[in-house]
Amino acid sequence: MRQRRIAREIALQVLYSLEVMGMEAGEAIELYWAHHDAPVDARPFSSLLIEGTWEHRDQIDPLIGSCSENWSIARMSKVDKSILRMAVFELCYCADIPPKVTMNEAIDLGKVYGSENSGSFINGILDALYVKLGKKDADQEITSGILEEPKQ
Question: What is the CATH number of the domain that holds 10?
Answer without folding.
Answer: 1.10.940.10
